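Re-running the complex after MR caught last week's input typo. The corrected sequence lines follow. Everything else is unchanged.
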Amino acid sequence: MPRVSQDHLDARRREILAGARACFARHGYEGATVRRLEEETGLSRGAIFHHFRDKESLFFAVAEDDAAAMMETVRRDGLVQVMRDMVARSGSPEVRGWLGTQLEVSRRLRTDPEFAKRWAQRSEAIGQATMDRLETQRAAGTLREDVPVHVLRQLLQLALDGLAMHLAMGRDTDHLAPVLDLIEAAVRRS
Amino acid sequence: MPRVSQDHLDARRREILAGARACFARHGYEGATVRRLEEETGLSRGAIFHHFRDKESLFFAVAEDDAAAMMETVRRDGLVQVMRDMVARSGSPEVRGWLGTQLEVSRRLRTDPEFAKRWAQRSEAIGQATMDRLETQRAAGTLREDVPVHVLRQLLQLALDGLAMHLAMGRDTDHLAPVLDLIEAAVRRS
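Corrected-run output:
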């Protein structure tokens, strides 16, 4: 297959994921009907389901894509920076899309054992990305030494989960920056 | 009305709330049909809706009751202790009931502006209970002095929200105790 076609396929796939993410965020998984997915992506159902077997696969791909993007940022800038970005852009389509996906994932984990099994690997990978970054920081001497790295990872994860819930409850984010400073200070060498 | 009748009415009301909480936790708001509410409380729909106008009012009463219980514990033992208790009894009916209510409240806040308006006062009251406790601790000299009390309150709230999300995602709670130690240390005078 010539290279240009693969590029085209990849671009189309990203286009579908972006539209689907917005659609899931706005209407929830159940409310994201095929018609709404068509409207949001500007593509026909034939085009959409040429790339993804069904709505279930499409949602999983959106969630996987979000997880991959977060892992990338965590490896580069750390989880505290991910949270700072979210607070700074809490009303943006990107953050609303991420939040919608998170809430749907959390609902699925409670209600769909098959999904929970598939998702466990993704979840493990994000945790590992955070661990890798913390290990690097510990080696560089910027991390506190009196607490195991996995406890620091769990503290950051708890803060991220808290941020998701905070945003989900529509609470304002005006005063969260100094809270993230405290979280960051809690993992650093003092 | 003679005192015994009022006691009886109160007891009946508590009985309905306990059954309804379990029912909402197990089936979600939509899934908690009148028939299921009857089964879970062991009372007829007539008896249930003698005390509560409709399912909506019943849910609000359950959520209010949870909020009042939490406020009571926060005033007495602080929010960190509330979280420690939740971690220790994460599989118990009480914690599952609280979590079910939290998730339903968070869904409502996103989708139901009328509910959001009614809930704002309750939410404010819990925040105030936490503030009161922190102010007392600051007066007693056990709290750090270099950060405003409202920031410490938000840190604790973020941790509580994170714990709710953590439990909602079915993650294990084995390693959360040392994380709560870090949170507690982050608000105390070092």
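None of the earlier attempt is carried over here. The two ends of chain B are 56 Å apart (CA to CA). Residues 28 and 137 of chain B are 38 Å apart (CA to CA).
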